[in-house]
């Protein structure tokens, strides 16, 4: 099985993680309906590198941002999905 | 050449040397009235009904590989119309009606076998939900039937209907008019029938871009040169996002991989399609004796036509709970296909913000059964520049306006549908 290297837990089986959605910026609470519609429903859906949010739900339960190639499943980057100013 | 018992006998005496090619292999023309991108079942059916129902025969179907080499040849061949919501129910029911006379219509044996599709229920909540769906099917004029555990034990003798499994079977929702068809034959039959009506089927022709003039597409740039187009329809499920991206459209679709697998050939043991309700698993037996099986998506976006082992194990575990007799059966083949997963689980067959560019996609993992009706309504949409009554609700705009068609009630998460 493929392994993802969790920044908190180290290498773990992919089955410990759950895919969330593509990693994009989250609209502000007072964003327009059109902005929310694009966030909820529209996807880039590339064949190639794709920034994604994954949940390590059977591990540390942290959300991670993983850049993964959708053609090869290769993991290109993996980091905590917290806002940049909050990262240690 | 028309296929019949007489042509068969004639060819038998002539050493089978006189059969024509099933479809022509023309060079692409400079210009077509309609260019369909994608030579799978849906694209070919669209071309066929454009010529047959609407008299539009100056049509090209562009296929990047070969006919029957994509998802049309990669599915588990199940045909059914057991949907709950009206918009889907009427669409898929029309498809099922077309399936029942497709071999005659195409003069090609699609080996459609209405052997029934049985969804098993394992909890009281699930039973109630199936009653609800079955009742709504009946109200829509679609056949549905509740089978008790005793009925099912008689109907599928090898199925474990005892109290021993972790999730014993309570009963099941049966649609007898559903069943299976031979997937390759569907692509070949439509290709042959469309070609006979003048449609050009162009294989090994990959679309690389679209030439625009204002808000119209005027030509398709392909690996075999530029092809002018009056109208363009795309039927490239799995790759809808990539192809629509070439004209700048962003779709409510994620591409996921779905695995399927077949066992070694066995003696006849299962004469229906049966699905597991306490997990996700479905199985039928092909005419060659192989058990054809499938389960869940891999639950993450992927264009790799290969799956991972944990999902396979989970599907097989569900299968073994249903059929302990299969514990020593060996798997023969295993493969993956790429699925257009929409954000409400229903397809998009619609006009787009570009004037003469039409979209047929988002089939999630139920596109095969939709093939005839998909072609029927997409041809209508292209020919009339307006949707058919049956795909009026399957628009792109429904995600903006809140009119999503979410049969499963799963919400805007692609992989949950």
Helical/strand content category of chain B: alpha/beta
Number of strands of chain A: 6
Would you identify the regions of chain A where 5 or more consecutive residues have pLDDT less than 50? none
How many DSSP helices of chain B?
11
The 3D shape of chain B can be described as globular
Q: What about the largest sheet of chain B?
A: 8 strands, mixed
Report the CATH architecture of chain A: 2-Layer Sandwich
Specify which chain pair forms the largest interface.
Answer: A-B, 26 and 25 residues
**N-end to C-end Cα span of chain A:** 30 Å
Q: Distance between termini of chain B?
A: 43 Å
Question: Which homologous superfamily in CATH is the superfamily of chain A?
Answer: Folate-binding superfamily
Poorly predicted runs of chain B: none
Q: Would you give an account of this structure?
A:
The complex is a heterodimer of chains A (88) and B (417). By secondary structure, chain A is mostly beta strands. Chain A has one helix at residues 33-41; strands spanning 3-6, 10-13, 18-22, 49-55, 63-69, 75-80. Chain A has one domain: 2-Layer Sandwich (Folate-binding fold). Chain A is built from one helix and six strands, in the order βββαβββ. In chain A, a hairpin with a 3-residue loop joins β1 and β2. The longest helix of chain A has 9 residues, at 33-41. Chain A is globular. The model of chain A has no long low-confidence stretch (mean pLDDT 92). Helices cover 29% and strands 26% of the residues of chain B. In chain B, strands 1, 2, 8, 9, 10, 11, 17 and 18 form an eight-stranded mixed β-sheet that branches. In chain B, strands 5-6-4-13-14-15-12-16 form an eight-stranded mixed β-sheet. Chain B starts with a helix and ends in a 16-residue tail after the last helix.
């Amino acid at each position: 099985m493929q392994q993802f290297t969790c920044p908190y837990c180290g290498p773990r089986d992919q089955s410990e993680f759950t895919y969330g959605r593509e990693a994009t910026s989250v609209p502000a609470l007072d964003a327009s309906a059109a902005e929310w519609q694009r966030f909820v429903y529209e996807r880039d859906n590339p064949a190639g590198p794709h920034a994604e949010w994954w949940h390590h739900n059977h591990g540390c339960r942290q959300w991670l941002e993983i850049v993964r190639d959708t053609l090869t499943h290769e993991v290109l980057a993996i980091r905590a999905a917290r806002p940049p100013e909050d990262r240690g | 050449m028309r296929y019949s018992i007489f042509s068969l006998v004639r060819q038998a005496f002539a050493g089978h040397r006189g059969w024509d090619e099933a479809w022509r292999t023309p060079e692409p023309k400079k210009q077509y009235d309609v260019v369909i991108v994608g030579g799978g079942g849906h694209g070919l059916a669209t071309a066929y009904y454009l010529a047959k129902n609407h008299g539009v025969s100056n049509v090209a179907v562009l296929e990047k590989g070969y006919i029957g080499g994509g998802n049309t040849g990669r599915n588990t061949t199940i045909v059914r119309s057991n949907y709950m919501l009206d918009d889907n129910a009427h669409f898929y029911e029309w498809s099922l009606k077309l399936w029942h006379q497709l071999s005659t219509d195409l003069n090609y044996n699609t080996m459609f076998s209405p052997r029934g599709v049985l969804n098993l229920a394992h909890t009281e909540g699930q039973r109630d939900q199936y009653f609800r769906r079955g009742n709504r099917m009946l109200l829509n004029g679609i056949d549905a039937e509740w089978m008790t555990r005793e009925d099912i034990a008689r109907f599928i003798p090898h199925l474990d209907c005892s109290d021993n499994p972790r999730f014993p079977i309570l009963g099941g929702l049966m649609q007898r008019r559903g069943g299976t068809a031979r997937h390759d034959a569907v692509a070949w039959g439509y290709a042959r029938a469309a070609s006979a009506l003048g449609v050009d089927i162009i294989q090994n022709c990959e679309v690389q871009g679209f030439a625009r003039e204002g808000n119209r597409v005027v030509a398709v740039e392909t690996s075999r040169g530029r092809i002018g187009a009056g109208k363009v329809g795309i039927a490239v499920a799995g790759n809808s996002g990539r192809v629509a991206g070439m004209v700048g459209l962003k779709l409510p679709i994620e591409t996921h991989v779905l695995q399927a697998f077949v066992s070694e050939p066995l003696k006849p043991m299962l004469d229906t399609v049966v699905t597991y309700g306490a997990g996700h698993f479905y199985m039928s037996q092909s005419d060659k004796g192989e058990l054809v099986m499938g389960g869940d998506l891999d639950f993450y976006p992927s264009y790799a036509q290969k799956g991972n082992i944990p999902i396979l194990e989970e599907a097989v575990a569900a299968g073994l709970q249903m059929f302990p007799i299969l514990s020593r059966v060996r798997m023969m083949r295993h493969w993956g296909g790429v699925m257009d997963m929409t954000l409400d689980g229903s397809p998009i067959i619609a006009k787009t913000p570009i004037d003469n560019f039409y979209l047929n996609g988002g089939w999630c993992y139920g596109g095969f059964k939709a093939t005839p009706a998909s072609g029927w309504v997409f041809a209508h949409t292209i020919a009339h520049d307006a949707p058919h009554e049956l795909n009026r609700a399957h628009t792109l705009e429904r995600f903006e306006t809140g009119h999503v068609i979410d049969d499963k009630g799963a919400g805007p998460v692609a992989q949950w549908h």
